[in-house]
């Protein structure tokens, strides 16, 4: 990040902030304030928290004569930064009927104006914080979509966030197994450009010979698992996964619903639509992906296998922009990882427990986050993200 150019960063700031506003534009004030579950956040909170990041980590430190826009916002819109101070409880974000959506948008506009005045004269370490803040906001852009989707799925009206894409999907290509030779390989971010700290340092891993699927598992293939009784066979499931299936009375992926003996619909950003058989299956938990892989006589790739194959195997399709792909790797620090000093050091490192790694990128992922080294992570039960799978063996 030694080649940051203030002019380019200022342009990127404007573009990222405008895109967040565009994503929230279809939402009413009622839509933007509701919270459908503790793991999701209201769109209004996303709009405010991403602004809080710039106010707290850039303006407060570098703006001469800094004064907070509203002192109460420091607590209301802190997410998990213990070093910053107190936080409003995450499960209660939907109770924040005040400030209003208009007040949050005014907060964004005020901070944007102050940032525009300050950025041309910021030192290099501050520009790095701005860059981090932009990538942080892009993560929240993706979360805003996944959280709105879950919220709308809870509404009996099944509202659509956006119009349906009426283009017909092409039939899925035949699944091929791509062989990868045994090798010691390098994984992790090692090139120019931005990366989160959890993508570093680049390091060597040993991979035994394996094969990896040329494409993602489709809806039709996953429906075969359901029809074969996959959700009723405990031998296919991890112990925690089987407990989860029974506790949730789960019989199919989140957002699927059966409309006939051999037909399904799925709820998505375009509302309730007929299931597209050839499209990648979405909204799977790690438990479901692991059980399907076992049923199919395969397994999930490790994150090292996924990253190496993505970088070296030209036969692989649907690497990004379709579905986040579960791996069998626990989310742990790379050898030599060291969190940054101060509050921003809480960004990734403290979550390296009880979570699994996903790779690739989904239809909701900002394009600048589509890189082979990107490490997404969620607990094994999480399925409201656009998460699917690629098999290995």
Summarize this structure briefly.
The chain is an alpha+beta fold. The protein has helices at 6-24, 29-33, 43-62, 73-76, 101-118, 124-153, 219-227, 239-248, 286-295, 303-312, and strands at 177-180, 183-187, 203-207, 210-213, 256-260, 263-268, 271-274, 323-330, 356-361, 376-378, 387-388. Helices cover 34% and strands 13% of the residues.
Describe this structure in words.
The model has no long low-confidence stretch (mean pLDDT 96). The protein has helices at 6-24, 29-33, 43-62, 73-76, 101-118, 124-153, 219-227, 239-248, 286-295, 303-312, and strands at residues 177-180, 183-187, 203-207, 210-213, 256-260, 263-268, 271-274, 323-330, 356-361, 376-378, 387-388. Helix 3 runs parallel beside helix 5 (101-118). The chain contains ten helices and eleven strands. Strand 5 (256-260) and strand 6 form a beta hairpin. It has two domains: 6-153, Four Helix Bundle (Hemerythrin (Met), subunit A) (Up-down Bundle), CATH 1.20.120; 177-388, paralog of FGE (formylglycine-generating enzyme), CATH 3.90.1580. The strands form four sheets. Strands 10-9-8-11 form a four-stranded mixed sheet. With 393 residues, it is of the alpha+beta class.
Mean pLDDT score, rounded? 96
Whole-number tally of structural domains: 2
Strand content: 5-15%
Q: Please tally the β strands and state the result.
A: 11
Which runs of at least 5 residues are low in confidence (pLDDT < 50)?
none
């Amino acid at each position: 990040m030694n080649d940051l150019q203030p002019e380019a960063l200022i342009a990127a700031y404007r573009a990222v902030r405008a895109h967040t506003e565009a994503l929230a534009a279809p939402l009413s004030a009622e839509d933007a304030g509701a919270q459908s579950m503790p793991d999701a956040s209201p769109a209004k909170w996303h709009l405010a928290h991403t602004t809080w990041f710039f106010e707290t980590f850039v303006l407060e430190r570098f703006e001469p004569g800094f004064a907070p826009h509203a002192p109460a916002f420091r607590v209301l819109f802190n997410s998990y930064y213990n070093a910053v101070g107190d936080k409003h409880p995450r499960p209660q974000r939907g109770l924040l009927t005040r400030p209003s959506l208009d007040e949050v948008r005014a907060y964004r506009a005020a901070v944007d104006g102050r940032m525009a005045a300050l950025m041309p004269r910021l030192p290099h370490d501050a520009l790095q914080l701005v860059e981090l803040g932009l990538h942080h906001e892009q993560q929240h852009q993706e979360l805003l979509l996944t959280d709105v989707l879950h919220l709308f799925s809870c509404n009996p009206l099944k509202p659509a966030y956006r119009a349906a894409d009426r283009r017909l999907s092409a039939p899925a290509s035949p699944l091929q197994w791509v062989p990868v030779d045994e090798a010691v390989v390098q994984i992790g971010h090692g090139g120019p450009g931005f990366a989160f700290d959890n993508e570093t340092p680049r390091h060597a891993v040993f991979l035994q010979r394996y094969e990896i699927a040329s494409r993602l598992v489709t809806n039709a293939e996953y429906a075969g698992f359901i029809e074969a009784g996959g959700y009723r066979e405990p031998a296919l499931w991890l112990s925690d996964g089987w407990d989860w299936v029974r506790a949730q009375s789960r019989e199919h992926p989140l957002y699927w619903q059966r409309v006939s003996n051999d037909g399904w619909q799925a709820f998505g950003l375009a509302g309730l639509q007929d299931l597209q058989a050839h499209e990648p299956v979405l909204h799977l938990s790690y438990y479901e992906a692991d059980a399907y892989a076992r049923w199919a006589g395969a397994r999930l790739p490790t994150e090292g296998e996924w990253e190496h194959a993505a970088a070296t195997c030209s036969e692989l399709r649907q690497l990004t922009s379709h579905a986040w792909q579960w791996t069998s790797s626990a989310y742990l620090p790379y050898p030599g990882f060291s969190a940054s000093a101060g509050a921003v050091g809480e960004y990734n490192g403290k979550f390296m427990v009880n979570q699994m790694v996903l790779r690739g990128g989904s239809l909701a992922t900002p394009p600048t986050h589509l890189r082979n080294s990107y490490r997404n992570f969620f607990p094994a039960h999480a399925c409201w993200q656009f998460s699917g799978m690629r098999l290995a063996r």
